[in-house]
Amino acid sequence: MPLRDLFIGLGVIVIWALNIIVIKVGVTDMPPLLLTTLRFALVAVLLVPFHPVARHQLPFLILLSLTFGTLHFALLFIGLGQAEAGTGALLVQMGTPFATLLAVIVLKERLGLRRLAGLILSFAGVVVLAGGPTLPAPLPTALLLTSALGWAISQLLIKRGPNVSPLALAGWVALFAIPQVALGSWWFEQDQLAAMGAAGWIGWGAVFYTAVMSSIIAYGAWYGLLRRHPVNRVVPLTLLVPVLAVGLGVLMLGDSLGPHKLIGGGLVIAGIGLIVLRFKGRNTKDGSGRPAS
Q1: Residue that wins the pLDDT comparison between 283 and 260
Q2: For residues 52 and 277, is the Cβ–Cβ distance under 8 A?
């Protein structure tokens, strides 16, 4: 990979790692479902007018808005509001092992010893995290793992669904997810208009960053890399996202960094590495290459 593209890839990884921190800080200034709704609205306004889709693709995009928009993103925002940023980032990375299991069950893909070892290491890492003080209460833990499952289901749908360009997919999924998440905000949260009026630069900055920087700029650059280079040269960079998120959580938010997080997080990342990395002499085809956040 040329040095310029390597720097682009690392820049995208930094944006996605910071996205975890931004969400964590943003939900302290604005209710999580309201923040998610505004984020989707901004993405839709910026992308949908410039990325039309065919009518026959709309049912697929509506279904994806349920799994990727609501199940993944909405639960991610809620869960991060109640968890340490680094721990939340590690739990959401379980989307890759979940996607592997779904591919074996639904698509009848061959698991293989290496991917099986990756699954065992990943789930062992969650068990180690569960024994430490940084794992959030059962409810936010379940929300974050369900968010990871939503990501995994979405990858399966994308793999089997019609071919939609990445930015068109992001825009239309956001558009169809708006009423779903807005309804959730109306049902579970209160005083949305007052919250929007009282929100400062942190809340509105989180809306801008998660929509423009993470969803549009970073994904646009990432898929540019995937078009120019083999997937197995690009996707391994995503292993740096939880590592940076943990480090940034410690430096910027004062998160703890105990042995359970180090060992458990290391096992999760090592397991995911065994799943996504491709070695010489093996098949280098991969899925979407999308991260879990």
Answers
A1: 260
A2: no
